Amino acid sequence: MALLFPTRAERTGRQPHAASLEAGVWPEFMYHDPLLERLFGRVIEEYPEYQFYAWDDERQEVVGAGNAVPAAWDGDVATLPEGGVDAIVDARFAEDAPKPTVLCALQIVIAPEVRAQGLSSRMIQRMGEIGRDHGLDRLIAPVRPNLKHRYPLASIERYIAWRRDDGTHLDPWLRTHERLGAPIVKVASESMRVPGTVAQWEEWTEMAFPETGSYVVPGALVPVEIDRDRDEGLYVEPNVWMVHG
Hints:
- The protein is α+β, with helices and mostly antiparallel strands.
- 25% of the residues lie in helices and 27% in strands.
- Strands 1, 2, 3, 4, 5, 6, 7, 8 and 9 form a nine-stranded mixed sheet that branches.
């Protein structure tokens, strides 16, 4: 592939995306985090210089995208928020938000047909480069382990300790970050919160929830909690803080 990595500020306007990206890469419920529904659009529009594409010049379409937002962090692991993605985005748009000191990754998405070609590493490196171009020398990331959904009943603490025979992380996305020099420093236990009615959860998952309890849902890293008496479902997703120097 002949790839370019322009920012949204450099290549303005709507770009043609690979069909597999247009279809969406996350489980449906992931698009219904109320805080991100309210603020993610502002991230894109107000910080275009931190959003970028993997542009395939031969196919003339976007085959990957990276989203990040400047954030304030004092370098103390203890102050990385348990709220992960939600907390970072919320803080950026708070009144009197402090001056940014780091760049925080929000997501990297890659078209399925071009995965396993080293593009994920290049995307992380490009994100760090963009931060440095704007005086933000450290990249922090609330990472969503991409195989955790296969082990929803294992705690995130247990899962991130699993290693292959060669000593590297079992999880490919954690492994990629680690190979680029980012250690796991902390669990973000409540990185995203997705509430909804029982009917909404049944629509999002195409499942029935006939009684109150915990349910394993395709694509979810941990079970979804359903309370039929309150007509509520809640998914609280853990992520993992990793820090690139």
